[in-house]
Inverse folding.
């Protein structure tokens, strides 16, 4: 067999998502693009702000940027990001703490490769972005998914129960994909206290990896700085969602200036950035984002869609909480059956992802990276599906 057993296993465990893509393509071919309501993909449909193409063209006109560069990225881009982060996080970042990466996914892989020893585990609360499982496996670690508390908040008790001698790190994703939850400061403080206590008891420092590509897409409450609360933190993020640039693969890893063994972590991560095969983040994009710190797409557009879809779902009878950030709704599946719900929606040409794709069966995810008109036209379908399911 040409493909390794491990990859075959991974393919079959994520095969329902592939099946859904295939179904989507089939429905679109049969009924036409505009008659299929595709809420399945987290691929931003808003165009990047005008400034992005203006700066991109100016930078492309320069002739001196095609070479290799220091592994951590262009000093100018790193200095610009660290300056922005000082404001955003209220933490004293310098250029040396920032590494430009191939998206948030690249940053996460670099963080995990830097920290993990064979057999180490990484904890995360459900529901979660399931790529974390593969990312941990890439570096010899294992992802352990723990239960969450009320209203998708972190459960400190669940983390306490799960932490053992193998635990190297905890991943936090806020605003969360798929729940839209922003973990409150009080929860993060309680988690930091737990990790400090574990450190005193065992001598092992557990790092936090905070995955924040949705930080700028928030509606009602701010996203607290994890780094400020717990200095032993590695922040992973990108411009994929807030500038609508996922295909350009640009993001960064920011290492807590006061984290334990900070010099070692920076040096390790710099090596990992090179040897994972990315070599360095895209040069043109580094130069571009260096000039666009703090910019984002119009979040008001996502807010209007969120409110429209939320109201429509509630009217149809679905139980759903209002997301605080990101661009997903995560309603309860009627009767707790996420597969049956997704199937019933599919009969209405509505594509959704079952909660089991985020380690949380009993729910389903809808992405509002579609226009208001699509949402409005989909609402009768949600009503009909609900009538069958309840
Ligand atoms: C929670 C989360 N983390 C990381 C990523 C990967 O982001 P990027 O495309 O910047 O690598 C995604 C993409 O959907 C995501 O939802």
């Amino acid at each position: 067999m040409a493909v390794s057993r491990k990859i075959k296993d991974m393919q079959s465990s994520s095969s329902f998502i592939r099946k859904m893509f295939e179904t989507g393509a089939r429905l679109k071919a049969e009924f036409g693009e505009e008659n299929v309501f595709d809420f399945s993909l987290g691929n931003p449909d808003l165009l990047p702000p005008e400034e992005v193409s203006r700066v991109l063209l100016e930078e492309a006109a320069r002739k001196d940027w095609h070479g290799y560069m220091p592994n951590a990225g262009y000093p100018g881009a790193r200095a610009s990001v660290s300056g922005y982060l000082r404001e955003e996080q209220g933490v004293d970042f310098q250029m040396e703490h920032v590494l430009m990466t191939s998206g948030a996914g690249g940053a996460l892989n670099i963080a995990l490769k830097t920290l993990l020893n064979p057999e180490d585990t990484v904890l995360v609360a459900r529901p979660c972005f399931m790529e974390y499982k593969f990312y941990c496996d890439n570096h010899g670690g294992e992802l352990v998914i723990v239960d969450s508390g009320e209203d998708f908040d972190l459960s400190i008790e669940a983390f306490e129960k799960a932490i053992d001698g193998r635990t190297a790190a905890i991943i936090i994703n806020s605003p969360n994909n798929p729940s839209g939850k922003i973990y409150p400061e009080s929860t993060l403080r309680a988690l930091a206290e737990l990790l400090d206590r574990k450190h005193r008891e065992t001598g092992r420092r557990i790092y936090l990896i905070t995955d924040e590509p949705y930080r700028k897409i928030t509606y009602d409450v701010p996203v607290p700085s994890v780094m400020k609360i717990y200095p032993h933190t590695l922040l992973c993020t990108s411009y994929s969602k807030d500038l609508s640039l996922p295909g350009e693969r640009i993001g960064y890893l920011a290492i807590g200036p006061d984290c334990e063994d900070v010099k070692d972590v920076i040096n390790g991560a710099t090596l990992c950035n090179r040897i994972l095969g990315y070599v360095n983040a895209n040069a043109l994009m580094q130069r571009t984002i260096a000039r666009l710190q703090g910019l984002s797409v119009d979040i008001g557009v996502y807010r209007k869609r969120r409110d429209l879809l939320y109201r429509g779902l509630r009217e149809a009878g679905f139980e759903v909480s209002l997301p605080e950030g990101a661009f997903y709704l995560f309603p309860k599946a009627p009767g707790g059956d996420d597969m049956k719900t997704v199937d019933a929606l599919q009969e209405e040409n509505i594509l959704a992802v079952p909660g089991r794709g985020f380690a949380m069966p009993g729910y389903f995810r809808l992405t509002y990276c579609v226009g208001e008109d699509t949402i409005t036209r989909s609402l009768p379908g949600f009503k009909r599906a609900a009538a069958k399911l309840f």
About this structure: Residues 42, 103-105, 129, 173, 177, 211, 213, 238, 240, 246, 251 surround pyridoxal-5'-phosphate (CB under 6 Å). The domain at 67-289 is CATH 3.40.640.10 (Aspartate Aminotransferase; domain 2).
